[in-house]
Design goal:
The two termini are about 30 Å apart. The protein is globular and about 80 Å long. The chain has about 525 residues and is an alpha/beta fold. The chain has 3 domains: about 350 residues, TIM Barrel (Alpha-Beta Barrel), CATH 3.20.20; about 60 residues, Oligo-1,6-glucosidase, domain 2, CATH 3.90.400.10; about 80 residues, Immunoglobulin-like. About 25% of the residues lie in helices and about 15% in strands. Helix 10 packs parallel to helix 12. It contains 12 helices and 20 strands. The structure holds 1-deoxynojirimycin.
Length: about 525
Amino acid sequence: MADWLKNAIFYQIYPQSFMDSNKDGIGDFKGIIQKLDYIKDTGFNAIWLNPCFDSPFGDAGYDVRDYKKTAERYGSNEELKELFKQCHDRGIHILLDLVPGHTSVEHEWFKKSMQPQKNEFTDRYIWTDSVWEQPDGLNCIRGISDRDGSAAVNFFSMQPALNYGYAVPTKPYQQKPDAPAPTATREAIKDIMKFWLDMGCDGFRVDMAGSLVKCDPEYKETIKLWQDITGYLKTYYPDAAMVSEWGEPQYSLAGGFDMDFLLHFGPEGYTSLFRSEKPYFSKKGEGTPTKFSELYDVSYASAKKHGGLVCIPSGNHDMDRIARYRDFDELKCCFAFLLTMPGAPFIYYGDEIGMEYMEGLVSKEGGFGRTGSRTPMQWNSGKNSGFSDADSSMLYLPTSAAPDRPNVEAQLNDPDSLLNEVKKLIALRQANPALQSYGDFEFVYCRDNRYPLIYKRSSETQEILVCVNPSGKEADAVLSDEVRGKIIYSLGGSAVVNGKTVKMPPCSACCILMS
Ligand code: NOJ
């Protein structure tokens, strides 16, 4: 496990929308470099960069055409290398987005595998033996070349699935994961990882990591595959970190990933926090924390077992913005929680200023309903929100026109802003080992349909009680032990501690350093 994960706090950058340095209306590497000081000053020490590789952009870059070449619109390989260096100069680690499950139909491998004549890439993808036969349980591409077969797809219909084999092959076209072609695919992915690691990146966020071996309900073969790849990394790149888009840490961490996310798909516990019909983090106070706690107990046990981390993101490019239905007081409570939980926090660009979900946008690059969460970063209240000097009509996506739109400049100048609260919370986390990635965790007060939520974080030297009351009403909890200690953080008014009782003002949070 890379040592730097002990206190990593990630910032996710969607490169299209972060900062445009060359006035073409789209973000780029140089733009990111210009904003690294902002990222560092806010307290982040790690970045996950969404795909930045050559692509026809049918799925915002998750349809890779060339894994070893950056997309021209972001800059050259050399410029990405410079971004790595600039990050490292500031003590920031940076993960690239690895998409091992599928490529674009325009990838050279797929073009070769479409040929009817047998060649090195014939089985790089999953092809049935006849154009009339559909691969088991998967959508497919068919009839677009002279090859007599259907090619399985992994996501959108222009993203053919790479062949890592089937857990239990039942048809002639299905191969075992250790057959020559699936083994060659796996080696090709290792080679791509090596390419970028040698250039200076610090690891990968892995797209759809659980999807590689097909018909593998218990993930047995998928886990073996990842053990092979992560084993290779541990030998040759021991400081590299891997986070999976999987959402089931009991499997991903067994595969050797350092971290997994709780996500908006799979078990519903994560959604119940901020995004369900009655989220727990709402002033309405109609939510329950127990859907989350049930999921978290299982996930946290896996993290402990495997020495890995479970990461709770504020959002990402696939979810509604956390601010879609939350006001700023509610958002502060959300961040008080996100930044005091174990695992490495992942904050989606713009969430730290409460950037809004932009309603009613036409889909861009396969975004569909996700498009509203992908609009340009709002740096100031000027032209194009300070994102770009291009004519507004050229922007990748429009910026908000609301005169009071959240923006970095205004929030930096306002001591009560969300951004300043986030900075305070990050500083608190950095100053207190118990609050960091591996600090122990235990629910202390977590009851069905009840507020507040109280949990204990501890390290060898500290014990901290974190109390959060996202509801709009005063709430109290009677604990089994007396609470004695010093309040080291408080939000939304002071909690009153009396013996075993903690009484909390509406929409508030506090951290008590126990003595
Ligand atoms: C998950 C990514 O986060 C999403 O944006 C993408 O569309 C799919 N995987 C397919 O790669």
